TrEMBL record:
Pfam families the record matches: APH
UniProt KW Cell wall biogenesis/degradation keyword: no
Molecular function terms, GO-annotated: kinase activity
Domain Aminoglycoside phosphotransferase: residue ranges: 51-295
Full protein name: Kinase-like protein
InterPro entries cross-referenced by the UniProt entry: ACAD10-like, ACAD10_11_N, Aminoglycoside_PTrfase, Kinase-like_dom_sf
Native organism taxonomy: Eukaryota, Fungi, Dikarya, Ascomycota, Saccharomycotina
CDD domains tied to this protein: ACAD10_11_N-like
């Protein structure tokens, strides 16, 4: 294990039965014959003994590095609890993540625009193996970038990376969503397998999201203070958000620079990670999520990216210009419009409502952290800081949507 990898892992913090894992994955027949195992692209031949470390990231779903006797590296992601102890059946949906990545890999074989993702090996839903549902995939060695302004990289290198980023985002949005859905098991994707006449839903992505966020915020508001102006903000989003594109589109759902892995020379994106929140919806949200740092106040970015320093934010005119430039680059690389019948359904024209929706979502997440703090179940050392943000975030949104005083 090289020094760069060593910096990203620690000894195992989230314990599980590593000996049972070793016995299982070094026995190819045990994997392929288990009825609760779904196979991916291929299964490597792991040789024991195994060395297992835990990555410093992966707070939602604990993530581990597996190194076998031949120094082959793999990644294991598991749920934080057994299924019976999860608060929500839809939470920590690593099964969805496995099947989406596996489906993307299959579609990449015949797509001109390829979405870079790790190879999937297998998903194990048999909790008797290590006590949790887990899956194993390829380890992709690369470089991560935390700071959205890309630090001290030369302008030409930044342009090169932005081109690769937009190639990747447009590849996600260009993927044949219907073919992907065909490959997904109904057990884990029932909402996409049934016609709308059966599910009774014809609501747009933003309508569905706002309904969900409103319900979550209301529940959280029973424990902590409610989000200021939430009803007014909701009405604004519902009135101004675009309808879904004509073409069904996959969205990543957590599209941000630290979920993109770059090659060591920082020439291009080599993997997109963390697909747990992906769905089929409106691509505006992916763009709003990725470009959000360039329009929020710099003091927020200073908090989010600490201890890294960054000068991006709405106070910097170059940041605001970058948003417009990258939205136009996205349009150019996508090669088709979201809705030929509605010219306003456009990333540049709808940017503001997408950006504000992203802040609303962030405020609900912050309120949830505040609720967990009050209940004594927040584990992060930074929880108090993030949990105090939601009134401030709501005021930012309200300040942008309220009519000017006469």
């Amino acid at each position: 294990m090289n020094k760069d990898i060593e910096k990203t892992v620690t000894e195992i913090r989230g314990k599980f039965d590593t000996s049972k894992l070793s016995d299982f994955i070094t026995n190819e027949n045990a994997i392929s014959s288990n009825p609760s195992v779904s196979l991916g692209i291929h299964i490597p031949k792991w040789q024991g003994p195994l060395t297992i470390k835990q990555f410093v990231f992966g707070q939602s779903n604990p993530t581990y590095l597996i190194i076998d006797a031949n120094n082959n590296l793999s990644v294991l992601r598991r749920k934080p609890f057994p299924n019976s102890k999860l608060v929500s059946k839809s939470a920590h949906a690593i099964e969805r993540e496995f099947f989406i990545i596996n489906g993307i890999n299959t579609l990449n074989e015949r797509s001109s625009k390829k979405v870079p993702v790790p190879d999937t090996y297998f998903l194990c839903e048999d909790e008797s193996i290590i006590g949790y549902v887990f899956y194993v995939m390829e380890y992709v060695e690369g470089a991560s970038i935390k700071n959205p302004d890309m630090g001290d990289l030369a302008p030409a290198k930044k342009d090169q990376l932005w081109n690769s980023i937009m190639d990747t985002i447009t590849a996600i949005h260009s993927l044949d969503a219907d073919k992907l859905i065909e490959s997904l098991p109904e057990k884990h994707f029932p909402q996409f397998k049934k016609p709308k006449s059966v599910t009774g839903s014809s609501a747009s992505y933003f309508e569905r999201q706002m309904k969900t966020l409103a319900g979550v915020s209301k529940k959280q508001g029973e424990t902590v203070e409610p989000i200021p102006h939430f009803d007014v903000i909701t009405q604004y989003i519902l009135k101004n958000a675009p309808k879904d594109p004509v073409k069904k589109m996959l969205i990543h759902g957590d599209c941000k620079i630290d979920n993109f892995l770059f090659d060591k020379q920082l020439n291009k994106v080599i993997a997109v990670l963390d697909w747990e929140l992906c769905t089929f919806g409106h691509p505006l949200f992916d763009l709003a999520n990725f470009l959000q740092p360039f329009q929020i106040p710099n003091e927020l970015n200073a908090l989010f990216f600490a201890p890294l320093e960054t000068d991006v934010g709405k106070e910097n005119s170059a940041s605001l210009q970058l948003i417009q430039d990258k939205l136009k680059l996205y349009k150019q690389k996508l090669g088709f419009v979201w809705d030929p019948n509605d010219p306003s359904n456009d990333p540049v024209k709808k940017w503001q409502v997408g950006f504000l929706f992203g802040l609303v979502r962030l405020s609900v997440i912050s309120q949830g952290i505040a609720m967990r703090i009050k209940k004594g179940s927040a584990s992060s050392a930074n929880a108090a800081g993030f949990g105090s943000l939601y009134p401030y975030l709501a005021e930012l949104v309200f300040g942008d949507i309220r009519p000017p005083k006469l």
